[in-house]
Fold this sequence. Notes:
- Helices cover about 70% and strands about 0% of the residues.
- The protein is built from five helices and no strands.
- The protein has helices at about 5-20, 25-55, 60-70, 70-90, 105-155.
- It is flat.
Amino acid sequence: MFDLGLTEILVIGVVALIVVGPKDLPVMFRNVGRFVGKAKGMAREFSSAMNDAADESGVRDVAKGLKAATNPVGTAMDGVKEAAQEMAKSIDPTKSIDPTSFKPGTETGKMAVERALEAKKIQAATARAAAERKAREASEALAHAEAAEAAVEVAPEQPSSAEPAVGPSEGSEAKT
């Protein structure tokens, strides 16, 4: 609040101890605490009164307008995001349909039920296709692993062709 450091508070405390005396120091600190509490309460009331007055007079609307004028792209993007979220909520075909929200036998009610059923069918088909794809990939990975294991088992039995032959060659002897 007053941006006082530890040394400043210590100096104030020592001066207060010398001037007021140890007998009356707790009473003085209690009175100072009450005064600070009342001052904070008054500041809080003043701040809330100013905020209420600003709300009533439309200053916040003007502040929003100024913000929009200084950052039109950000404000436009916020509006677009809000509109997209509202539209997504309003046209979500997977949400549960309350049969009492439509009159019985109306075309709107029939179409809403049909769309919801089609959306659920699409979700089920997509889930089945994903499960089949994962199963196919797993079987391919298992076949690849078995082939790699078979190659490892066969490899030690075959001699490598990089090693030289053990016997001497005919042209390597020197004639004396």
